[in-house]
């Protein structure tokens, strides 16, 4: 049931101004929700128990966590994680846009090739792709640039070319491009097709129609899942630790294999992941509000609004017009 509360200075349906006492006659008292209050009490008790065990259990070794939280090796790993995330998402988004446009192309050959690419990279695990790219030299020890069946102008050793960083970026970019292609395609399809016809009738090319008409409107649909992908990418970078690339998790592993302080190092790494994902979440909310202007279904209007909505037992106020 929608809760309607009187708003000072509100206007009644007749269009005339009314006083505060007159408006109170239209107040709708919200129905009690005892289950919500019970849930809040249970949640508070569980949270208190969790905080108590975190503080009183000496095996968490918070002093060691504090010692390694800002250690140079951990911070270098954090920087590598951020670099991998930014580079992989930037190239992956660009690749996804191109693939989505090709996937929607009227050419069946181009659309089929894009569909095969998306199916392959979405159908194989990221870990398998990473190991494959890291061992590419087993298939092609050398890569040559020249005329087919003719002279070679440039020869590169693949072991030198595909370093752990290159293998990690290749894996993350190619995999992310496949997922972004489907996200962008869904956003493009959400724009009414009549707008494309109108732009074409005005003489705009397909590229300009996509850039100026379709993509700006599709961003409202594209941004939320893209934000989730960025956060997911930040955490997915941890798999490159298996090829000894010194990102955040591998930096912690290098320390606790020497000191045997596994749990404190994992807690320090988790804190940095939580900080990074919280910053990315705030950025995602900002972009959602920016590209969602003109729509009325805005749930969170501020950075604390989400928390208020979670713990609030009252429905939002609706002004009487």
The computed structural class is mainly alpha
Helical fraction equals: 55-70%
Q: Beta fraction of the residues?
A: under 5%
Largest sheet: 2 strands, antiparallel
Outline type: flat
Q: What's the order of the H and E elements?
A: HHHHHHEEHHHHHHH
**Uncertain segments:** 6-16, 315-321
What radius of gyration results from the CA coordinates? 27 Å
Number of helices: 13
Q: Could you report the average pLDDT, rounded to the nearest whole number?
A: 83
How many distinct beta strands? 2
Question: What is the first-to-last residue Cα distance?
Answer: 18 Å
Strand order of the largest sheet: 1-2
Question: What attributes characterize this protein structure?
Answer:
single chain, 321 residues, mainly alpha, two-stranded antiparallel ribbon, 2 strands, 66% helix, flat
How would you portray this structure in words?
The chain is mainly α and 321 residues long. Helix content is 66%, strand content 3%. The protein is built from 13 helices and 2 strands, in the order ααααααββααααααα. It has helices at residues 20-24, 34-56, 62-69, 72-103, 108-123, 126-134, 158-161, 164-189, 193-201, 206-236, 248-259, 262-291, 305-311; strands at residues 142-146, 152-157. The protein has a two-stranded antiparallel ribbon with strand order 1-2. The longest helix is centred in the first third of the chain and has 32 residues, at 72-103. It is flat, with a radius of gyration of 27 Å.
Write the layout of secondary structure elements.
Blueprint lengths: L19 H5 L9 H23 L5 H8 L2 H32 L4 H16 L2 H9 L7 E5 L5 E6 H4 L2 H26 L3 H9 L4 H31 L11 H12 L2 H30 L13 H7 L10
Antiparallel strand pairs: 1-2
């Amino acid at each position: 049931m929608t809760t309607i509360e009187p708003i000072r200075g509100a206007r009644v349906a007749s269009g005339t101004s009314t006083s505060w006492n007159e408006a109170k006659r239209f107040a709708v008292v919200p129905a009690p929700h005892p289950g919500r209050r019970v849930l809040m009490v249970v949640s508070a008790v569980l949270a208190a128990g969790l905080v108590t065990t975190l503080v009183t259990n000496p095996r968490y070794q918070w002093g060691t966590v504090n010692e390694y939280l800002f250690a140079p090796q951990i911070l270098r790993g954090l920087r590598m994680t951020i670099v991998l995330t930014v580079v992989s998402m930037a190239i992956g988004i660009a690749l996804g846009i191109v693939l989505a446009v090709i996937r929607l192309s009227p050419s069946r050959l181009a659309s089929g090739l894009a569909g095969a690419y998306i199916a392959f990279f979405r159908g194989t695990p990221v870990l398998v792709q990473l190991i494959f790219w890291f061992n590419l030299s087993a298939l092609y020890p050398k890569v040559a640039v020249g005329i087919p069946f003719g002279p070679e102008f440039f020869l590169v050793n693949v072991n030198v070319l595909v370093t752990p960083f290159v293998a990690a970026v290749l894996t993350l970019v190619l995999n992310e491009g496949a997922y972004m292609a489907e996200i962008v395609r869904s956003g493009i399809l959400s724009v009414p097709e009549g707008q494309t016809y109108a732009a074409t009738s005005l003489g705009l090319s397909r590229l300009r129609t996509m850039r100026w008409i379709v993509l700006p409107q599709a961003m409202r649909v594209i941004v939320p899942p893209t934000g989730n992908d960025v956060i997911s990418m930040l955490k997915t970078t941890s798999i490159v630790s298996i090829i000894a690339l010194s990102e955040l998790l591998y930096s912690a592993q290098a320390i606790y294999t020497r000191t045997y302080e596994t749990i404190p190092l994992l807690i320090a790494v988790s804190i940095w992941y939580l900080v990074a994902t919280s910053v990315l979440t705030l950025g995602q909310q900002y972009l959602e509000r920016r590209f969602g202007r003109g729509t009325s279904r805005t749930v969170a209007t501020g950075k604390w609004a989400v928390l208020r909505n979670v713990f609030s037992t009252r429905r939002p106020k609706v002004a009487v017009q």
